[in-house]
Design brief:
Chain lengths: 101, 501
């Protein structure tokens, strides 16, 4: 899967959609609820949610893996857990951003 | 990531949250904004133009036009109504536009050759009544979202090309989604043709913070609006802040709701920010430096840095009150000398910037390169990476072969208690190439002679940086967005421009 910066992906087992904020530098599998995600706008048959990977995603939150290889932003919430090559993605620490707006 | 997605996320978060309040007090929720944008897209598609222009002051029609253009998959072209007919005519002349404009500006655009013009309030009403079209395919982030003309203070305006991915990168990189409580409100008084006007709207929408529009700036009206709308955050340009603090010399701020005041768009004179910090002791001040071509802010001087600078013993920390702060996440800053080599701390040169939000592309000129954008601003970094802006490269004075930054002399003159505002420019000189001319506005009631000011400058700077002449004027020429018109200052000095007061 081409996890390029700005590309949008959707879960086939729940409503989750994400956008890639920081892309991995090597081919990886981004999955949600146990099944590989597909590009937003593509048709894919619905699968079933792996109940062991059903922590849910939150709208507007960023998720990243332990090694910060990838960072994604959740653009639509859903019931599945995001994983990168099987490793669970965690909520990125909410560090206060120095904004001018 | 694109602007349509950004709006739909805001709607999913809370479709009943008020997104914008217009100058007349009427509002649109996020849900209403999205519905109106869908209707606007139908109108825009029906008109058959390739770009949507917006030529009016701040109001509800602007966000509807912005997102209507997004949904119609066309670039939005906000137009600076302060440009001359010649400049505006050149901009609209070769474009296939549908324009949304006030009645007067619509008339002007028609005279300049724009055939399809919709009056703003009629556009708004029709957009709200129109049926949405079919959902098109998702936005390609590389599509152009905005064509924004640079301010043209040093050259003819050029259109900066800003794509969805540039604008979205700025928003998601610098603010936290849904982080604003429903009681928050941001007062926006910069016009819609200013990049800060666009980005502030987008950032606030993403945070869930209501935007309150002011369509014409007056200090008293600004203060009234802050109180009446319980504004928590405000964004101004330095000339506005100068007028606000002047108004506060008559009476206290009485703005208990105000939490943050952000400023940018031009250099902030030290006396103005120092007085503002005293008159708004409980407000967090933020300085933002950025360009149209970089989707606005690339460096920020935060509230703690402001207060620390005021109270610190360390001269380097104190000096930071005059800095533009540190790069925002995702942005790299470099200073390069004339040979294009990277400079170390303290060394002045041209400011270069790189990052996903940096578009650095103009209409009619190929973009590309290694991603580094030359800002044409001069500056330096201090030992901890704080950026100091010295001024536009074009404004550098070359006197007797020496490069002199006007800002350095301006800062010294501003430190004199009788000086309220000043501009230092180079004037053609047979002996020196350029000589240094300082034009000053005095504090009301103050008197000071040219020689005293020259002596003051000489006491703080090298002899070669002492102004050769000092002239006192009633006011300096600024744009609506707070940028000093140095070209006009120069013209007035040599007597070829509009006569100085």
């Amino acid at each position: 899967m081409e996890l390029t910066a700005g590309s949008r992906w959707k879960s086939v087992v729940c409503d989750t959609e994400v956008v890639i904020v920081r892309p991995p530098d090597a081919p990886r599998i981004l999955a949600c609820g146990g099944t590989a995600m597909v590009p937003v706008g593509s048709d894919a048959p619905a699968g079933s949610l792996d109940q062991a990977l059903a922590d849910g995603t939150q709208l507007g939150k960023r998720y990243t893996d332990e090694g910060s290889v990838v960072e994604v932003l959740c653009t639509k919430a859903g019931r599945g857990t995001l994983t990168l090559d099987g490793e669970r993605l965690e909520l990125k620490g909410a560090k206060p951003l120095p904004s001018s707006d | 990531m694109d602007l349509e997605l950004l709006l739909s996320m805001a709607v999913s978060f809370d479709d009943a949250r008020v997104a914008v309040t217009g100058p007349d007090g009427t509002s649109l929720t996020t849900g209403e904004l999205e519905a109106a944008a869908a209707g606007a897209a139908t109108l825009v598609r029906e008109a058959g133009a390739t770009r949507l222009a917006f030529c009016d002051t701040n109001g509800l029609a602007f966000p509807v036009a912005l997102f209507g253009a997004v949904k119609a998959r066309l670039p939005l072209v906000p137009l600076n109504y302060r440009l001359s007919d010649e400049q505006l005519g050149r901009i609209v002349g070769d474009q296939d536009l549908l324009a949304v404009a006030s009645p007067e500006l619509g008339e002007r655009l028609r005279r300049l050759g724009v055939e399809r013009v919709l009056e703003s309030s009629a556009f708004l009403a029709s957009a709200r009544a129109a049926a949405p079209g079919d959902e098109p395919t998702p936005v390609d982030p590389d599509e152009v979202a905005l064509l924004l003309y640079t301010s043209g203070t040093t050259a003819a305006p050029k259109a900066a090309v800003l794509r969805h991915r540039n604008l979205a990168a700025y928003v998601i990189g610098t603010v936290e989604f849904g982080s604003a409580g429903p009681e928050e409100a941001a007062l926006l008084s910069v016009p819609p043709y200013h990049i800060a006007g666009v980005m502030n709207l987008l950032s606030n929408l993403y945070m869930g913070r209501r935007v309150v529009y002011l369509d014409a700036f007056r200090a008293e009206e600004w203060l009234e609006r802050v109180r009446e709308q319980a504004v928590t955050h405000a964004m101004v340009v330095p000339t506005m802040l100068a007028r606000i603090v002047a108004a506060l010399r008559q009476g206290p701020a009485d703005a208990p709701s105000l939490r943050t005041l952000a400023y940018g768009g031009a250099k902030m004179p030290a006396p103005v920010i120092e007085e503002a910090l005293r008159r708004f002791p409980h407000v967090a001040f933020t300085n933002a430096y950025g360009l149209t071509e970089t989707s606005s802010t690339i460096t920020v001087l935060g509230p703690e840095a402001h207060r620390q600078a005021l109270s610190s013993d360390d001269p380097e920390v104190r000096a930071r009150l005059g800095s533009a702060g540190l790069p925002v996440p995702g942005v790299e800053i470099e200073i390069r000398d004339e040979d294009g080599e990277r400079c170390g701390p303290g060394a002045g040169g041209e400011i270069f910037v790189r990052g996903e939000q940096v578009a650095g592309e103009y209409l009619g000129a190929a973009g590309g390169g290694d991603g580094w954008f030359a800002t044409r601003d001069r500056g330096h970094l201090d030992s901890e990476g704080y950026l100091f802006i010295e001024g536009r490269s074009d404004d550098t004075i070359i006197r007797g072969g020496e490069n002199i930054a006007p800002a350095e002399i301006e800062d010294v003159l501003l430190a004199h208690e009788a000086v309220e505002d000043c501009a230092v420019v180079g004037v053609e000189d047979e002996e020196w190439g350029q000589r240094i001319a300082a034009v000053v506005v005095l504090v009301p009631g103050a008197t000071v002679g040219a020689e005293e000011l020259r002596a003051h400058a000489r006491a703080h700077l090298r002899g070669s940086k002492t102004p050769d002449e000092v002239r006192v004027v009633d006011e300096l020429p600024y744009t609506d967005t707070g940028k000093l018109l140095r070209r006009v200052v120069r013209e007035q000095l040599v007597g070829t421009g509009p006569s100085a007061p």
